[in-house]
Amino acid sequence: MAKELPGYGTINVPKDRAVPFGAVTPAPVCTQDLFQTSNWRIVRPVKDDEKCTRCLICYMSCPDACWIYQEEQDLMEWVAGFCKGCQICINECPTGALTAVAELDFPDGVIRLDKPF
Amino acid sequence: MAKELMMTGCRAAAEGAKAAEVEVICSYPIRPYTAIMMELAKMVANGELNAEFIHGEGEHAQVSVVLGACASGARAYTGSSGVGVTYAMEVYSPMAGGRYPAQMSIADRTLDPPGDFGSEHTDAMSTRDQGWLLGWACSPQEVYDNTLINYRVGEDHRVMLPQMVCQDGYFISHIPDKVILGDQSQVKEFLPPYRPISPLSTTEPVSHGPQIRPDQGAPMDAARAQTFLAVPKVIEEATADFNRIFGRNYDPFVEQYKLEDADIAFFIQGAHSNTCRTSVDRLRKQGVKAGMARLRWVRPWPTHQLANALGHVKAVGVVETSTSYGGAMRGGNLVHELRASLYDLEQRPLVTSFMAGLGGETIWPADFDYMAKVLTEMVKEKKTRNYVYWIGM
Fold it and tell me: Is pLDDT above 70 for B218?
């Protein structure tokens, strides 16, 4: 019979790179670190709590639910892991409490991450 | 008791889906597969089958609907033909990547243009790199059987992949043949209920189909590739169980017909293998040592099984029934994979390919005689003169 044929080798996905089976994640959650989609952001919205009236227009207008109202502290909280820097919130904010700041200006800016992509 | 009836491949597919007690069906008309949905619609209307029957807006919607159904934990079923198969192309990869083991039953039809109703394998063959299980039946009986075998393999937790169960349009889908339908007790023994992994749920909510980062793409691809390494074993187990429970005699991957002492062999899949089998018999009576290897699964491709089955043959002719314009051999796709499978053998057969059965044309016994002549000449000359021969052209 034939000589031994090559095999297919083995495939071992390293634990730290493993992705959940079928890419299914727990829900509903405001933030999770399994699948983050902020790595193509070039600017982020920075808020001025003095100007912010908690009108929730940013919360309503964000397509990715990246503004959360923290009732206890009476503050708006920004979700870094999913904000894509689209600036809709900045555009919609009636009091000018939000400004776009370049990611380069932040020590944890997405382009400074060890593994941005 | 198991009963034997005369039925078309389309009816056999519907009977298979009924036996599997599919829970969600999504239809959209395109011939020749439409008859499967007509049969299923009747079964649902008559109360023989308790399933949600949804009319899709098109094939893209059909596959999307079964994706959703499968995500919610239902055994889902759809199907298509020809350009319908290619219209749904976008959804095939998410379906496999999300690990939704729904089934799509294909009755082949030639792709446009121009519009042609005839059978040709190019429609489903174009989906072969999307992570689905894929294979062809050669009789209505095998359509019924493959429907059950595919659900069993696809829904196995070591697999969890969608399946394309293919039959040649008209040659199989519309020509009645004897089919033995299994007892529901046999089906129950063979096919356990679908057990979804992390289905959509109101009590344990999950998100399906998220956006991933580029660095998560490779691990997801690798996970699917890893699964395909495990599939052959699951297919072997399922086929052995099927043979035992239903009293059939399938080789898991390749039907080997008179190959043991063959000098020349046809490599083929689907309906035309029936004419091929009788041609092998006729050629043998004329003193030509011919044989046939019939492929049952294109994905996963049975590399080693084919090397073992065909390694000793002197010349192999691949009967394509699908196109790969401008490909390495300028013919179809099967020849690429077969040649690659045989490459590492110390003594490998000469391999050429025959473009036949395109656009729905019949492959006649005389065509197999011609192919046998080409293969015999190759053996005599000890070389492959052409990579491809277009039959009748």
Answer: yes
Q: Is B299 on the interface with A (CB under 8 A)?
A: no
**Contact present, B78 and B23 (Cβ < 8 Å):** no
Beta bridge partners of B390: B355
CB–CB of B82/B123 below 8 Å?
Answer: yes
Q: Kindly report the three-state secondary structure assignment for every residue of A62-112.
A: CCCCCEEEECCCCEEEECCCCCCCCCHHHHHCCCCCEEEEEHHHCCCCHHH
Chain B nearest-CA distance from A68, in A, is 19
Count each helix (H run) and each strand (E run) in chain A, helices first.
Answer: 2, 5
Rounded to whole angstroms, how far apart are CA atoms B194 and B151?
Answer: 9
Cβ B206–A115 below 8 Å, yes or no? no
Which of A40, A38, A55, A39 is CA-nearest to residue A89? A55
Q: What is the mean pLDDT of residues A24-36?
A: 75
- A22's tokens: 């079928």
Query: Could you tell me the pLDDT band of residue B215, with boundaries at 50, 70 and 90?
Result: confident
Tokens matching residue B48: 């023989």
Cα(A65)–Cα(A11) distance, integer angstroms: 37
Phi then psi for residue B95, to 5 deg, are: -65, -45
The kind and range of the H/E element at B148 are: helix B140-155
Name residues whose C-beta falls within 8 Å of residue A19's C-beta, 6 or more positions apart in sequence: A13, A34, B212, B216, B219, B220, B223
> What radius of gyration, in Å, describes the C-alpha atoms of chain A?
21
Give me B298's structure tokens.
Answer: 């294109």
Q: Which pLDDT band, with edges at 50, 70 and 90, does B3 fall under?
A: confident
- The whole-number pLDDT of residue A117 equals 47
**Rounded to whole angstroms, what are the CA distances from B295 to B147, B192, B292, B302, B310?**
16, 26, 10, 8, 12
Q: Looking at chain A, which residue has its C-alpha nearest residue B343? A: A5
SS3 content of chain B, % helix, strand, coil (to 5): 40, 20, 40
pTM: 0.92
Which chain A residue's Cα is nearest to B305? Answer: A5
Pairing relationship of beta strands B133-136 and B163-167 according to DSSP bridges: parallel
What tokens were used for B225? 């590739």
pLDDT at B199 over 70: yes
Choose from B197, B206, B231, B313 for mutation: most chain A CBs within 10 A. B206
